Amino acid sequence: MSTTTSTRPAAPPVSYATAITLLLRWLVVHHSTEPDQPWRTRCGCGAPLWPGACGPAGCCRSCTAPVGPRPYRLEAAALVAVAVLLVSGWTGWQLAAYAWWATGMIVLAFVDLAVMRLPHRLTAATTIGFLVLLAAEGDGTAWWRAMAAGAVLSGLFAVLAVASCGQLGWGDVALAVPVAAALGWHSWTAVYAGCLLGLGTAAVTALTMRKTGTLRAGGHLPLGPFLIAGAAAALAWQ
Ligand SMILES: [Zn+2]
């Protein structure tokens, strides 16, 4: 029996990240609409978003109007995510689960920044994929702790959403599930650390912006990017 060995060099992880950012940009722009509007498929000039408006320059190839996240920001976030995944030491299903989680979180963060909205379909796809991939890893204790953390934090957020009369949105309540689950897979300490980091940074940023006049009274900051960044920082610390 003879075996053949491929001599083709493997693509570096950076090129995978670059290729996937086209799709991520499309997902962000597609979902960056007001709740009463249909999902976006075209630029204002009528040209389809895919693929002409999904490049890293953040503009439509037909009319050069800015479309989606600012140039190279999403790509930078994707590269940071790849770097963290590479140095995490995670392997197998766990690595696949966190790669899926990071992909969904990048899209959700940029959509929330653009339109202060966290579409449930994106959160649901991220959560289900993440939990299924983690389940394949086969650590029952960690998996149930992740589920419990997601349930506890989203339950807490649901109470706050009702009590705050809409200041905390239901998109944030839903986002609490994958954020807390990703931290809960590791430990309850990671859940506390990640949540405190996210909520604390959001509070400090809002207070600073109010003081400097960049956030007017009654204005709101999107909470999603802070929660996601806090969780990502706590995960990178693991
Ligand atoms: Zn255009």
What does this structure look like?
It contains 8 helices and no strands. The chain is mainly alpha-helical. It binds zinc ion. The site of zinc ion (ZN) has 8 residues, from loops.
Identify the notable features of this structure and list them briefly.
2 domains, disordered N terminus, globular, binds zinc ion, 8 helices, 0% strand, 238 residues, mainly alpha
What are the SSEs and their pairings?
Blueprint: H1 13-31, H2 73-87, H3 92-115, H4 120-137, H5 140-163, H6 170-184, H7 188-212, H8 224-237
Bound molecules: zinc ion.
The site of zinc ion (ZN) has 8 residues, from loops.
Largest sheet: none
Give the integer mean of the pLDDT values.
91
* Cα Rg: 19 Å
Cα distance spanning the termini? 45 Å
Helical content band: 55-70%
Shape: globular
Give me the strand/helix succession: HHHHHHHH
Number of domains: 2
Number of strands: 0
SSE-based structural type: mainly alpha
Oligomer: single chain
Bound molecules: zinc ion
Low-confidence stretches: 1-6
Number of helices: 8
Please report which band the strand proportion falls in: under 5%, 5-15%, 15-25%, 25-35%, 35-45% or over 45%: under 5%
